[in-house]
Design brief:
Largest sheet: 2 strands, antiparallel
Radius of gyration: 19 Å
Distance between the termini: 37 Å
CATH topology: DNA polymerase, domain 1
CATH architecture: Orthogonal Bundle
Order of helices and strands: HEEHEEH
Number of domains: 1
Strand content: 5-15%
Strand order of the largest sheet: 1-2
Shape: elongated
Number of helices: 3
Helix content: 40-55%
Length: 127
Amino acid sequence: NELVERARENGYAQTLLGRRRYLPNIDASNSNQRSAAERVAVNMPIQGTQADMIKIAMNRIRERLDAEDWTSEMLLQVHDELVFELPPAELEEVRSMVEHEMRDALPLEDVPVVVDVDTGKNWLEAH
């Protein structure tokens, strides 16, 4: 695997934005340790880039919420999900802004970024 070989050469895996995760066990003699590091070498660039993307989106969303003087609040992040509390009057504008900021957080050529927005009076209803 190309990602594993690159991690062996460099000693780390990295995201598209260059954030690194060092893998001291990538060449371990213990096969369990080596296999675990190899899995990280494959998964980290994808999962780590997604984590970078959502953090960028969260910062931009927070800035937009403050700039627009909305009363909407971003409450929490769960993996690739953001949870908000907002008044019904702000729903459509905030929904549009959140979709835009999440979709455009990191331009990815030839990779569609799909953003789904669900609403409800509580977390259960929104799912």
